[in-house]
Design goal:
186 residues; mainly alpha
Length: 186
Protein backbone atom coordinates (compact mmCIF):
# COMPACT_ATOMS: atom_id res chain seq x y z
CA UNK A 1 0.00 0.00 0.00
CA UNK A 2 1.29 3.44 -0.84
CA UNK A 3 1.69 6.22 1.64
CA UNK A 4 -0.97 8.93 1.61
CA UNK A 5 -0.01 12.11 -0.23
CA UNK A 6 0.34 15.06 2.09
CA UNK A 7 -1.94 18.02 1.41
CA UNK A 8 -0.08 21.01 -0.04
CA UNK A 9 0.38 23.76 2.44
CA UNK A 10 -1.36 27.06 1.84
CA UNK A 11 1.07 29.92 1.31
CA UNK A 12 1.54 32.08 4.33
CA UNK A 13 0.14 35.59 4.14
CA UNK A 14 2.63 37.95 2.55
CA UNK A 15 4.48 35.11 0.79
CA UNK A 16 4.98 35.53 -2.91
CA UNK A 17 4.28 32.85 -5.46
CA UNK A 18 7.33 31.35 -7.13
CA UNK A 19 8.14 32.80 -10.55
CA UNK A 20 6.92 30.66 -13.44
CA UNK A 21 9.32 29.54 -16.08
CA UNK A 22 8.75 31.20 -19.48
CA UNK A 23 8.43 27.67 -20.86
CA UNK A 24 5.65 26.69 -18.44
CA UNK A 25 2.35 25.83 -20.12
CA UNK A 26 -0.27 28.56 -19.97
CA UNK A 27 -3.97 27.81 -19.85
CA UNK A 28 -6.05 29.03 -22.79
CA UNK A 29 -8.33 31.94 -21.95
CA UNK A 30 -11.96 30.92 -21.53
CA UNK A 31 -14.01 31.15 -24.73
CA UNK A 32 -17.70 31.89 -24.90
CA UNK A 33 -19.93 29.03 -25.96
CA UNK A 34 -19.89 28.55 -29.73
CA UNK A 35 -23.51 29.65 -30.25
CA UNK A 36 -23.44 32.34 -27.57
CA UNK A 37 -22.76 35.22 -29.98
CA UNK A 38 -24.33 33.67 -33.07
CA UNK A 39 -27.68 32.50 -31.74
CA UNK A 40 -29.32 35.95 -31.99
CA UNK A 41 -27.99 36.38 -35.54
CA UNK A 42 -29.30 32.98 -36.63
CA UNK A 43 -32.66 33.74 -35.02
CA UNK A 44 -33.11 37.13 -36.73
CA UNK A 45 -32.01 35.76 -40.12
CA UNK A 46 -34.55 32.95 -39.79
CA UNK A 47 -37.33 35.33 -38.73
CA UNK A 48 -36.49 37.78 -41.51
CA UNK A 49 -36.26 34.99 -44.07
CA UNK A 50 -39.73 33.81 -43.12
CA UNK A 51 -41.10 37.32 -43.56
CA UNK A 52 -39.38 37.82 -46.92
CA UNK A 53 -40.41 34.42 -48.29
CA UNK A 54 -44.00 35.03 -47.20
CA UNK A 55 -43.98 38.38 -49.01
CA UNK A 56 -42.64 36.73 -52.16
CA UNK A 57 -45.28 34.01 -51.95
CA UNK A 58 -47.93 36.72 -51.56
CA UNK A 59 -46.61 38.43 -54.70
CA UNK A 60 -46.86 35.15 -56.62
CA UNK A 61 -50.50 34.80 -55.52
CA UNK A 62 -51.32 38.39 -56.50
CA UNK A 63 -49.57 38.18 -59.87
CA UNK A 64 -49.46 34.52 -60.94
CA UNK A 65 -47.49 33.50 -63.99
CA UNK A 66 -49.44 31.47 -66.53
CA UNK A 67 -48.16 28.09 -67.70
CA UNK A 68 -46.67 29.52 -70.88
CA UNK A 69 -46.14 33.06 -69.62
CA UNK A 70 -43.04 35.08 -68.94
CA UNK A 71 -42.08 34.94 -65.22
CA UNK A 72 -42.77 38.62 -64.59
CA UNK A 73 -43.47 38.22 -60.88
CA UNK A 74 -40.09 36.64 -60.14
CA UNK A 75 -38.42 39.19 -62.40
CA UNK A 76 -39.95 42.20 -60.60
CA UNK A 77 -39.53 40.68 -57.13
CA UNK A 78 -35.80 40.26 -57.78
CA UNK A 79 -35.42 43.73 -59.28
CA UNK A 80 -37.36 45.39 -56.44
CA UNK A 81 -35.38 43.41 -53.85
CA UNK A 82 -32.10 44.52 -55.43
CA UNK A 83 -33.24 48.14 -55.38
CA UNK A 84 -34.15 47.94 -51.70
CA UNK A 85 -30.86 46.21 -50.79
CA UNK A 86 -28.98 49.01 -52.56
CA UNK A 87 -30.81 51.66 -50.54
CA UNK A 88 -30.53 49.71 -47.31
CA UNK A 89 -26.81 49.01 -47.53
CA UNK A 90 -25.93 52.64 -48.21
CA UNK A 91 -28.12 53.87 -45.37
CA UNK A 92 -26.67 51.48 -42.76
CA UNK A 93 -23.04 51.67 -43.91
CA UNK A 94 -22.72 55.32 -44.92
CA UNK A 95 -25.64 56.97 -43.20
CA UNK A 96 -27.03 56.19 -39.83
CA UNK A 97 -25.43 53.47 -37.70
CA UNK A 98 -27.74 50.52 -37.06
CA UNK A 99 -28.00 47.87 -34.36
CA UNK A 100 -25.80 44.85 -35.11
CA UNK A 101 -28.85 42.66 -35.82
CA UNK A 102 -30.52 44.99 -38.35
CA UNK A 103 -28.33 43.96 -41.27
CA UNK A 104 -28.72 40.18 -40.74
CA UNK A 105 -32.46 40.56 -40.10
CA UNK A 106 -33.37 42.82 -43.00
CA UNK A 107 -30.52 42.40 -45.49
CA UNK A 108 -29.86 38.68 -45.20
CA UNK A 109 -33.21 37.55 -43.79
CA UNK A 110 -36.04 39.63 -45.24
CA UNK A 111 -34.43 40.56 -48.55
CA UNK A 112 -32.71 37.19 -48.89
CA UNK A 113 -36.06 35.47 -48.42
CA UNK A 114 -37.86 37.90 -50.70
CA UNK A 115 -35.49 37.71 -53.65
CA UNK A 116 -35.07 34.31 -55.21
CA UNK A 117 -32.24 32.94 -57.26
CA UNK A 118 -33.66 29.42 -57.05
CA UNK A 119 -37.01 30.34 -58.64
CA UNK A 120 -35.14 32.37 -61.26
CA UNK A 121 -33.08 29.27 -62.14
CA UNK A 122 -36.18 27.02 -62.18
CA UNK A 123 -37.97 29.52 -64.43
CA UNK A 124 -35.06 29.45 -66.88
CA UNK A 125 -35.05 25.64 -66.83
CA UNK A 126 -38.83 25.56 -67.38
CA UNK A 127 -38.53 27.92 -70.35
CA UNK A 128 -35.81 25.72 -71.85
CA UNK A 129 -37.91 22.57 -71.36
CA UNK A 130 -40.83 24.32 -73.07
CA UNK A 131 -38.53 24.80 -76.07
CA UNK A 132 -38.36 28.57 -75.56
CA UNK A 133 -34.59 29.15 -75.45
CA UNK A 134 -34.86 32.74 -76.72
CA UNK A 135 -37.24 33.67 -73.90
CA UNK A 136 -35.04 31.83 -71.37
CA UNK A 137 -31.94 33.70 -72.54
CA UNK A 138 -33.80 37.04 -72.55
CA UNK A 139 -35.07 36.38 -69.02
CA UNK A 140 -31.60 35.39 -67.83
CA UNK A 141 -29.98 38.52 -69.26
CA UNK A 142 -32.83 40.93 -68.45
CA UNK A 143 -32.94 39.88 -64.81
CA UNK A 144 -29.20 40.27 -64.40
CA UNK A 145 -29.09 43.67 -66.10
CA UNK A 146 -32.21 45.02 -64.40
CA UNK A 147 -31.05 43.84 -60.96
CA UNK A 148 -27.64 45.46 -61.37
CA UNK A 149 -29.24 48.66 -62.68
CA UNK A 150 -31.61 48.69 -59.70
CA UNK A 151 -28.74 48.37 -57.21
CA UNK A 152 -26.77 51.10 -59.00
CA UNK A 153 -29.76 53.46 -59.13
CA UNK A 154 -30.64 52.83 -55.47
CA UNK A 155 -27.09 53.37 -54.21
CA UNK A 156 -26.64 56.52 -56.29
CA UNK A 157 -29.97 57.90 -55.08
CA UNK A 158 -29.29 57.06 -51.44
CA UNK A 159 -25.82 58.62 -51.57
CA UNK A 160 -27.17 61.78 -53.20
CA UNK A 161 -29.86 62.09 -50.51
CA UNK A 162 -27.35 61.47 -47.72
CA UNK A 163 -25.00 64.15 -49.09
CA UNK A 164 -27.86 66.64 -49.41
CA UNK A 165 -28.95 66.01 -45.84
CA UNK A 166 -32.39 66.28 -44.29
CA UNK A 167 -33.04 69.67 -45.91
CA UNK A 168 -33.28 67.96 -49.31
CA UNK A 169 -36.33 66.07 -48.11
CA UNK A 170 -38.25 69.19 -47.03
CA UNK A 171 -39.59 72.02 -49.14
CA UNK A 172 -37.75 75.28 -48.65
CA UNK A 173 -40.28 77.48 -50.43
CA UNK A 174 -44.04 77.37 -50.01
CA UNK A 175 -46.14 75.82 -52.73
CA UNK A 176 -47.86 78.25 -55.18
CA UNK A 177 -51.32 77.87 -53.57
CA UNK A 178 -49.99 78.93 -50.17
CA UNK A 179 -48.10 81.84 -51.73
CA UNK A 180 -51.26 83.12 -53.51
CA UNK A 181 -53.30 82.88 -50.29
CA UNK A 182 -50.65 84.92 -48.47
CA UNK A 183 -50.74 87.67 -51.16
CA UNK A 184 -54.54 88.03 -50.92
CA UNK A 185 -54.60 88.38 -47.14
CA UNK A 186 -52.05 91.23 -47.15
Amino acid sequence: MSAPHPEPEAPSPGATEPALSPDAPVADPPRPARWHGQAPVVAVVAAGGGIGATARYGASLLWPTGAAGFPWTTFWVNVAGCFVIGLFMVVITEGRPAHRLVRPFFGTGVLGGFTTFSTYAVDIQRLMEEDRPGTALAYLAATLLAALAAVWLATATARRLLRAGPAALTRTEPDPATREKGKRSS
